[in-house]
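Q: Could you write out the predicted structure for this multi-component system? I'm mainly interested in how the pieces pack against one another.
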Amino acid sequence: MQKYAQILDLVRERNPLVHQITNYVTVNDCANMTICFGASPVMSHAPEDVVDMIKIASALVLNIGTLDEKQIEGMIAAANEAKKCGIPIVLDPVGAGATLYRTQTAERFMNEFPLAVIKGNAGEIGTLAGVSATVRGVDSGNISGDPKEIAHSLAKEYGCTVVISGAEDIISDGKRIAGVLNGVPIMGKISGTGCMASAVCGACAAVSDSMDGCITAMAALGIAGEEAAKTAKGPGSFKPAFFDAVTSLTNEQFIKSARISEYQ
Amino acid sequence: MQKYAQILDLVRERNPLVHQITNYVTVNDCANMTICFGASPVMSHAPEDVVDMIKIASALVLNIGTLDEKQIEGMIAAANEAKKCGIPIVLDPVGAGATLYRTQTAERFMNEFPLAVIKGNAGEIGTLAGVSATVRGVDSGNISGDPKEIAHSLAKEYGCTVVISGAEDIISDGKRIAGVLNGVPIMGKISGTGCMASAVCGACAAVSDSMDGCITAMAALGIAGEEAAKTAKGPGSFKPAFFDAVTSLTNEQFIKSARISEYQ
Amino acid sequence: MQKYAQILDLVRERNPLVHQITNYVTVNDCANMTICFGASPVMSHAPEDVVDMIKIASALVLNIGTLDEKQIEGMIAAANEAKKCGIPIVLDPVGAGATLYRTQTAERFMNEFPLAVIKGNAGEIGTLAGVSATVRGVDSGNISGDPKEIAHSLAKEYGCTVVISGAEDIISDGKRIAGVLNGVPIMGKISGTGCMASAVCGACAAVSDSMDGCITAMAALGIAGEEAAKTAKGPGSFKPAFFDAVTSLTNEQFIKSARISEYQ
């Protein structure tokens, strides 16, 4: 647990700038969560703007939740520069499987860029892994098959870390496979939990190995969610409490509460 | 009251996917309110994306709060597919009357698509009904004439349900006319109450007759607003309490608290 | 203090419509803060829409936080009409200095339009004033040189009011120089504080002299922030408390708590 807790510290110390090109639904939550986690968010999507911004950023997060042609242009320009600069790229393929446009765009980024992390729910990752999956809008879907196997083989194929969010988050870099059991159901009752997790995976990947970074990110948000749920009266009051809990999360609390399993 | 309360249950049971093409100001509130109400939101606006998404959606909500040409393209593609699939289309003509662009766009959708619901404030609906109306930005305006008559005749003309939000919400499908007295002034002190109501009208229209659905939606949000106002110290604390109150609203509470009048 | 407190009253009395073309990250916060402050927000960016909207607006706020070509088109159309109508234009050059695109766009608006207010952090204003500045994404940066001098000379050069936000906000109209010490560090731990301040500067500039208006805006938000920080457990709970505190801020509280220095 110590090594994961240290990643929390590293983010807070180095305050990495996380460049995010994301959907217009949860973008404010992503910005605030990035700050609460100890990093700095910057949102920029114009092809004219992203190259300069990537030069000073430490990670790039691409979230396709409200995709369009203009946004793809900006994402490509940013990803090209991120590749050149060698900073980690996180892809959140929101809604892959629900529409062909989203699936194909996600695949395009997977095939054309050296992604550090692909993070989605079971339906999205299942779709991209080519296994039978059901996706309904942007809700978490289901897959046939073992998520550990799917994460492992997709990670191996693309040389990146794959995160499948769920009751147990599964994380694999193609070698190791880990599970994170932290979290509470109310986290699924607010819009943006997945998007915020991707932002935070970006912050962690900016300061550490992607696999360890994603484990840390998922466990930290899960623990904060558990903490926030203690006082929340519903999804409305959960959200501010969640931001507070992420901000005040200590190493000690992380080490005590993290439920991380190494499966392989 | 029983039949309206049952619509609440139906939404929670069937969890309809509500496709929303909406403004970038209140989109996060709309997503969260849709979830709190028991439905699922999905936001998608690219012409390349919307057709696939509509195929799995149960309602389409078009909100013109921050309109532009690209968004209109996406709205038209989505509305065409919604028409083909026979799912209800809700139009929230935000700011109609304030600018010609908004008025004409709203009219275009009214004339070209079989809308299930048109929901706006007095100024917006008055403008679209061709009565003398004052609209100031996106604030609720005033109309000359009886809102019951205006809602009734506009609904009749377009074969849809018309909702005029206000201290008393007026709802008509061209045959019946109903009023909903639930709600509190602080609901007008946060941005997005009207947009959230439209999202929830979409959720209800997905599982029931539009007229009954809109009555249910307006009464449910009004009751939740009354509940939330009891503990709120201002608009800031009202908002999370409002989301909590919608989430925890029971049938019993709805039946006890709904103030619905059938005028015709 | 009396004259500043009266500006608070004037905003609440006249309820000016503040037209905002802004970034998609903090737009909801800007809308809500505008309402809490006693004004009315309207967001509209399409060239086809902005001209009609400006005709009924009392101020225009341009925030370049998530700039793109389409948005610049809308900003230019709106600024041209605002110039014609003689309403104050506030520019928030978010991220100027971080990318050339942002710097040049900010300069373009400074050179082509009669701005009433330029409001940014030290790095942004330093960049635009041509002094050595460091900017990191959209975070507040540093400048070499005296912020009072920089604000004063930039204000003089452009015939407008310049606000440099910081631990002490510096405000100058090229003649007077004032400082506002209100505020708390947690205001920098939520996304959007600067954007909300620009919106509120627009509301105040709509009803008063820009210099006095900006002093009032910065002091009022600072005092409300101090109040909200008393009960906040972190950035998450700070935000709703901040909105509540702005809404309930009284003249008496303003006069008692404002820490405004006139340096020249």
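A: Regarding packing and overall arrangement: Chain B touches chain C through 33 residues (CB under 8 Å).
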